[in-house]
Design brief:
Blueprint: E1 33-38, H1 42-53, E2 58-62, E3 77-79, H2 89-110, E4 117-118, E5 122-124, H3 129-144, E6 155-157, H4 159-166, E7 174-177, E8 181-183, H5 185-192, E9 197-200, E10 206-209, E11 215-218, E12 224-233, E13 253-263, E14 275-277, E15 281-282, E16 289-293, H6 307-318, H7 322-325, E17 334-342, E18 349-354, H8 356-362, E19 380-388, H9 394-410, H10 418-424, H11 428-435
Parallel strand pairs: 1-2, 1-12, 2-9, 5-14, 12-19
Antiparallel strand pairs: 3-8, 4-8, 5-7, 6-7, 10-11, 11-12, 13-16, 13-17, 14-15, 15-16, 18-19
């Protein structure tokens, strides 16, 4: 446990020292590479790319034989704005994340990189009256927002116009995000990690601190894998498998999701011109197939494909495009299932790994309202970071999260508002529990 040290002068809880930035990593010639990243999905690959852009070397460890084997292995991921009517902290993060991811993919396409993507637009339909009210509030908020470069562009459509844009008859109008689209996650992961040293089929089981700075990685047999200046744990549920992150298990939720797909030949005289987002989603053709779904099940941890889930996806699709759904049969569909990792407040955990026991010792009386008590700076596991918990929004959250962590590792400030960064900080759950009197040292 890191022993907390109180500052010479007092600080108020309003200063929130429990969210202080971690010390930047120190480059040393004795390390195998600058930063090791555990997890080869969109989060890990994004961390590689952002750090490499800063001139920081990376080694990416993926326990499977290829990258993007988890939720990032789906054939299509939506690049759809996540906009909230009240401009909540969640909305601010994911709206900025959408712009970041969209700009990243557009730049890669402009450079002629081999990434599969299309900015064909996303038609968002309300699934119920509450959704319709929310969409109207979003439209009003966006219409009143200052017109700046990169602002989310949206167009309201009535039922006929929405049907014309999609190419299928839909039951209601909605919002059309004409600059949005889709991306193939495996192709993006491969590109983002192209400058990293990639170690596939290697499982990391233990992280131990080095004297001075950096950390050491070990495999399940206890053998040394390498010494690095910093470690980023960017996996899914396995993020909590390390001694430094075991406490996070109580705040991570696995959601099983199954997607379905059918051949474009099924469409016949029908068309799918853009991405359809409703209670589920439907994509235009890629590699001769259309993808739709997806199920959400927090009571299952297997990745077997089931006809029951195909049937559930068809029933969900029928609410938006019944003509197409009537042509689909569970036994004739392909599919893929995976486990998404989310959190109780539906925001990812991004930042330095808190030392759980040291937090309890450093801030035992946050529930007492002692506004002038002395508090030390946040106690972290030295040079260890986490980047996880994006649920189904990894495509619009992970690249921006990677830029946050890269800024922290390099000792730079990030452009996201401080309150948004605090809402994503892994220590938020510890601090909340102490304030509620649920934890004691």
């Amino acid at each position: 446990m890191t022993k907390p040290v109180a500052p010479q002068g007092g600080s108020k809880p309003a200063d929130k020292p429990w969210f202080d930035p971690a010390a930047p990593f120190i480059r040393q010639s004795s390390h195998n590479n600058d930063v090791a990243i555990i997890g080869g999905g969109i989060a890990g690959a994004s961390c590689c790319h952002t750090l490499n852009q800063l001139g920081i070397g990376t080694t990416l460890f993926e326990q499977n034989d290829t990258l993007a084997q988890g939720a990032s292995g789906n054939p299509i991921g939506m690049l759809e704005p996540y906009v909230t009517a009240d401009n909540s902290l969640s909305g601010q993060f994911y709206e900025a994340g959408y712009q970041h991811s969209s700009n990243l993919v557009r730049r890669l396409l402009a450079e002629g990189k081999d990434v599969e993507a299309a900015f064909c637009g996303v038609l968002s339909l309300p699934a119920n009256p509450r959704d319709a009210t929310r969409q109207q509030a979003i439209l009003e908020r966006l219409s009143l927002a200052p017109k700046v470069d990169g602002a989310t562009a949206v167009q309201p459509l009535d039922q006929k116009s929405a049907s014309d844009v999609l190419g299928l008859t839909v039951p209601t109008g909605g919002l059309f995000y004409q600059d949005a689209g889709w991306v193939n996650p495996p192709s993006l992961c491969k590109l983002l990690a192209e400058q990293a040293t990639i170690q596939q089929g290697i499982q990391i089981a233990r992280i131990t601190p080095l004297q001075g700075s950096g950390a050491r990685l070990h495999n399940p047999q206890g053998s040394l894998v390498g010494d690095f200046g910093a470690i980023i744990i960017a996996g899914a549920m396995e993020t909590a498998h390390f001694a430094q992150t075991t406490w996070m298990r109580d705040y991570m939720i696995a959601l099983r999701g199954q997607i379905s797909w059918f051949s474009k030949n099924v469409l016949g005289d029908l068309n799918v011109n853009c991405v359809l987002s409703h209670k589920g989603y439907l994509t235009p053709e890629r590699a001769g197939m259309h993808v739709f779904g997806a199920t959400f099940d927090r009571h299952a941890n297997n990745t077997d494909i089931t006809e029951n889930d195909h049937a559930a996806n068809i029933a969900q699709l029928a609410l938006a495009v019944p003509d197409l759904a009537a042509r689909l049969h569970p036994g004739a569909l392909g599919g893929r299932a995976g486990l998404r990792t989310t959190t109780p407040d539906h925001l990812p955990m991004i930042g330095p790994a808190p030392d759980y026991d040291a937090y309890l010792a450093a801030y035992p009386d946050l529930d007492k309202g002692r506004y002038y008590a002395r508090y030390c700076s946040a106690p972290y596991h030295k040079d260890v970071y986490v980047c996880t918990g994006f649920g189904a929004r990894g495509m619009i959250g992970a690249p921006l999260a990677a830029s946050m962590i890269a800024s922290q590792i390099a000792g730079h400030k990030h452009s996201l508002p401080p309150l948004v960064q605090e809402a994503l900080h892994p220590a938020r759950y510890i601090v909340r529990a102490i304030k509620r009197g649920l934890l004691a040292p």
